[in-house]
Amino acid sequence: MSTRSTTRPTSPATRPPTKRRLGNWMPQKEEAAAQARLQIASAAYERARSTPTAKVVRELAELVQSDTVLRMNLSRAIDEALGAGFELGYTNIDELMIVVDYLASYAPPFDLEVPVATPLNLVLDWPMCMPSGYAVFRDPAFNAQLRRVLEYWCGFLCGPHSRVHLTTDAPHGWFCDAAQRRMSLDDYYCDRSQPHWGFASWNDFFTRRLRAGARPVDEPGNPAGIVNACEAAPYDIRDDCQLHDRFWVKAQPYSLREILAGSELECVKRFAGGSVYQGYLSAFNYHRWHAPVAGTIVQAYNVDGTYYSGLEAEGTDARGLNDSQGYTTAVAARAVIVIEADAPAIGMVACVFVGMAEVSSCRIVALTGQHVAKGDELGFFQYGGSTYCLIFQPDVIREFVPKPPWRDDVAPLKINARLALAAI
Question: How much is the average pLDDT of 346-368?
Fold first, then answer.
């Protein structure tokens, strides 16, 4: 007889007493964040004197200016943030668009102390969590055009001009001694004899591949062993998840019908009452996804959604997007891959890879109908802050390896490492 995991929704006592930014994507201290915004804005205004605005950014500006409600809400969100005393680096929509245009061809530097790996998130930090900002960052037309801007930036990051910081030069080179130690770069394929270590672009580096044997698959022949699908730190585990739930409240329960928006209802119903594991990725770690179980892919699709939408219940806090990760599984842009496990007792496993903030694409490489072994690659995040979850049917999980209380300063669980044990 199987035994259900008894892990329940986390209570305030299990969370860290103070909020911190997760994953080293942006500075921990607001003073450093504000200074970084001012530096970005200064460079943006200087560049705008001699460089025409990109078409996709002009179209974003035109969308905002032509929609009365959108323009009002974004203007008010900026004013509310400034009125609350936050330093943004801009004072109105026109100035914000100059900064957005600059960031559309921005190559992030390495900085261990003051990371700015998601610069647009940093620039939008406070307007997105102001009372008027929530509607802006949920607006479908705004998100659709913002996606085009992010795709444009992704194009830049896929090109050779994005390699400006792919050097050994300290302190901002991604191959400097401090970076090599922080990211364990010996674990990855590269050619140090070549310029930029052989990487064709920033995204080529960001989606770098592990060397053979760097992340061995835990007990590949044991069907009861479920492995970690992303190199991510544990964020939450929930049991008895519902088909529909109040994902917009402080507790952020997982609402399966919303998360698996592109799946047939009968498929989603198989997960009702089941378990969800969620982890968040660091800016410095591996960003490809691997299969948690051996099986056949029965669904593989992308869901369009939001990029900077936080939850009101998390309050006026620049860390609100980090703390809204349960909510983002239901609303943010994401890739969904459903695997029918070879082991009948496991049934289906839904893998949901969520693009938060600057993630301009969630790339699926293992398609419907393909059989995957445990640990095979499923896809990858093409730049930006990310979170992911695995969804299991009821009575499948005997035990999860990660246990609460959840801390925000732990090392990520290695990809292909044991995540859970199935009740087989």
Answer: 88
Confidence at residue 246, expressed as pLDDT on a 0 to 100 scale: 62
What's the pTM value of the predicted model, to 2 decimals? 0.89
Do 332 and 397 reside in the same domain of the chain?
yes
Q: By residue range, what is the domain housing residue 195? A: 165-206
Whether residues 190 and 128 fall in one domain: no
Average pLDDT of the residues in 89-107: 97
Interatomic CA distance for residues 137 and 228, integer angstroms = 31
Amino acid at residue number 147: R
The answer to whether residue 212 sits within a structural domain is: no
Given this model, what pLDDT does residue 9 score?
A: 37
Burial 38-67 (b: 16+ CB within 10 A, else e): eebbeebeeebeeeebbebbeebbebbeee
Domain count, the chain: 3
Between strands 348-355 and 232-238, the pairing is unpaired
In angstroms, the CA 327 to CA 398 distance is 26
154-201: per-residue pLDDT in tens? 999 999 999 999 999 999 999 999 999 999 999 999 999 999 999 999
